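Rotation project, supervised by the postdoc (A.L.). Task for the rotation student: set up a whole-complex structure prediction and record inputs and outputs verbatim in this book. Inputs entered:
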Amino acid sequence: MLHKTTIAAVLATTLLAGPVAAIDLDPNLKDYTPTSGVDGNLKSIGSDTLNNLMTLWAEGFKAQYPNVKIEIEGKGSSTAPPALIAGTAQFGPMSRPMRGGEIDNFEQKYGYKPTVIRTAVDALAVFVHKDNPIKCLTLDQVDAIFSKTRKRGLKDDIVTWGDVGLTGEWASMPISLYGRNSASGTYGYFKEAAMAEGDYKDSVKEQPGSSAVVQAVASDKGAIGYSGVGYKTADVRTVPLTTSEGGECFDATADNAYAGDYPITRFLYVYVNKNPGRAMDPLRAEFAKYVLSKQGQEAVIKDGYYPITAEVVKGDFEALGLN
Amino acid sequence: MSAFMNPEQAVADRSAPTAQPRQRASDIRARGEPFTWALGGALGVGCLMIIGFLLMVFWNGVGTFVPKPIAVVTTTGGEITAGEATRTELYRPTPEVVAALSEAARQTIADRDGFAERTLYRIGNFDFYSEDFRWVSAFDVIDVKYPKDIVLVERTEWGPFIGHIESIAVDGEVIALDSVHDPRFAEAHAQARARWSQIQDIERHQIGAVNYRINQQRLTLRRIELKDGRDSQAYSETKRAADAETAELQSEYERLTEQAQALRQRNAGMTVTLEELGGREKTIGIDEIVRTYPANDLSSSEKISIYLSRWWEFLSDEPREANTEGGVMPAIFGTFAMTLLMVIAVAPFGVVTALYLREYATQGRLVAFVRISVNNLAGVPSIVYGVFGLGFFAYVLGGSIDQLFYPERLPNPTFGTGGLLWSALTLALLTVPVVIVATEEALSAVPRSMREGSLACGASKWQTIKYIVLPRALPGIMTGIILAMARGAGEVAPLMLVGVVKLAPELPVDGLFPYIHLERSFMHLGFHIYDVGFQSRNSEAGKPMVFVTTLLLIGLIFVMNISAIVVRNRLKKKFVGSQF
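Outputs recorded:
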């Protein structure tokens, strides 16, 4: 073989640096098999977290059905319900579940509830600058860092890195906060899961997209921010989290997310308007099938999120009335 | 000091005996040179900023597609990192890290005031490592090699691969390659790619046309159903015709699908096995490889050819992998088409308004008020135009058009959502003040004597405007339109509301009736920049694409402006020559 000449000797004694193993798909996921008679237009409006993932699915789906036209718009989860209700979109990707009021509005117009597909697993990561030596944060500390109301009950406010135990040049460094805008599902989910529905501090710099949060954290040494783990770059690191003081810390990895150890894990959803009395039209049904297939879940890995298991897929199929 | 003198004093100074120092002889404000300097300086600073910005964009954009060498770095932990070095920075390692280092390394860091160097490598192989980039600190490095046999493989999925091509399989027969430049690989690759483009052509264009016609049949039928009802004779007749037609198209569709499937089948037999430096292997189809090259073993001419082929791909292909790879052709086309439509809408509208305001309207309070309003319109934030465009054009106008002309497609909106036409009209609204103001200025610059001369010769007012005033004012009007065009082509915020989307590979112009599809959503270079820079999964990998796309957008605006200027100059010559 051609390469053995130069670096075989090195390879014999060493391993390539690969701290993160490739994430494996559930072997029970089905291969997607295309059928005939699928064409038309699809439009998806909703989450920014799912924006790239929707695009990857659209690309994959279009490779199967070249004449399907898919348009994707991702400006925040809160834009999904109105679009579904108005009928301007057939799919509404959301990074949080729909709220009661949104479901009610939908039901008022159509007489039935929207159907939800769980499409991927995301460990909502807390990012810091890559040089930040912080080992672990408790959720209470995260709450005290981001929230002005501190509903999780930590007594003192946290404003510098010294307050969470860092020393040296970090001790007096103020924590600068980055987050998402309020249309975002990530904003809502973080508020619920990490802050017990408390209020964000006024000093949180709200960014228009998940990638913008990561970029802001990458260029600000004292920064902390949250967004989907899929947006991680080499310039930031994720902070391991724990639920209780002194408890074991878990980093945002696939295994910890699946085991439920990582405390702020969530599903990423896609909502559809499906009349429970009728079968879904072939175009949307096939797209949903594609998303939940092996190929669709491979795209999830490609986008940095974690694939769902065959068990979850089964539940989704039932909800959609597919087989 | 002298700058603050009052004029009387200055005059007194000037008349004073020459024993006074020369520079105090006159007021600085009267002399003017300092102001020349200040003005020149301001111009200089302005130019410097513009040139600096352009150079930055140009330098970063032009360098993106240059094939870079791949370093294989061995670090103290025995780990190997292979990748393209992208950037280097200084940082301060933590005391614990420093304490664990060797004496020599600690000394080096101490000599640099506690700073150490690290390099970011683009390591590719995302399917193996779950990361695209990795930092390597200089004190960890044992050695850096540039082996000649390492290759970079650009794939249609999963991003670049760095490692070795182990073997290829052609129709089930495995061929082990004995050099990077093995012609058998190039041959197989060319074959597979040729078949791949054939499949693309069948699926996109031929099947596309068939599907379009099937859909058209369905819509015609639906239209008649809405008009005459299901029980009418017209409906049953059309249904019979449509069914026959559809059946025929269906068999055509199946024939084409089979053809594509056969090609796919042949390509499925052609695979390539890649091996990364850690020894893990992956087998992919040869047609999934866009290009591959031995990064450390390239002659200058090979480098240039890779560079050019990457540019060509960027300009002529569709985006891949959620817009982070591939080309931007749909975005170039969308930007161009939208700007052109906008000019078609804004030019007559703006010019007619200005003509009336300047030539016909009685100059009174009302006209002054209108003029102020027009100027204020130029100051309204562009996003407000976007909201207006969405609410009025898309929802109200578009919604009504759908009700009237496309009832068979409802509830799927045709014009009742963002699209090319509404975007162009929204931007036309945004830029119309520029055209009005420029045209008014140009009209008022036409000498009164010329108009009077024309009127005295017996020409009517309209004749005067048409033959005397407009030709004279045309260069100024064109300047206004050029400004409007430049402003419109670079605008993004309102477009996000009225029709620009992340992914819309269908061009608004194609070979299917009615050929120009003004209702389609489109891609735009400006939005593409925002999307790749701030929305893509890996912002680091997206950065070079941002620069290239910016370069392209600036280039496109430049080309459009230049052509408008050429047209203006021609008109100028033509009209000036033909006048008196």
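Student's summary: The two ends of chain B are 56 Å apart (CA to CA).
Supervisor addendum: The longest strand of chain B covers residues 80-91.
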